[in-house]
Description:
84% of the residues lie in helices and 0% in strands. 7% of the residues are buried. It has a domain at 2-80: MazG-like (Helix Hairpins). Helix 1 (2-17) crosses helix 4 and helix 3 runs antiparallel to helix 4. It is built from 8 helices and no strands. It is globular. By secondary structure, the chain is mainly α.
Amino acid sequence: MEVFDEFMEVVRAVRKNCPWDKVQTHESLKPYLVNETNELLEGIDRLKNENDSENLCEELGDVLFQVALHSVIAQEEGLFTIEDVVSGISSKMQFRHPKIFSPEDKEAVKLTWDELKKKEKEQRSKTR
Length: 128
């Protein structure tokens, strides 16, 4: 957690102090997210073809920076925080993997990924 907290402080400092980063919006960052995602896909290919794990690690970091920057912008807008993003995906993965996280729930364990996803969406719509 300490490393992640330090990383988020770097992201916040970049957002606050870099003239380019401080004016970016979710919309203006879309092409960069696409670019970084494509570079990540290339990094996966390089891992397979050239055993280049350093490049894959770097590209994953670039995508993580995009996620973190969008989260900082969202926090500035009062929408959500990086903690909300992490908590949300953690809960989602636990829900979608009942064999691992709730094997005692025999009904959930029998459901397919798509059925769990549908059930999750239904539950989410009831709470909104």
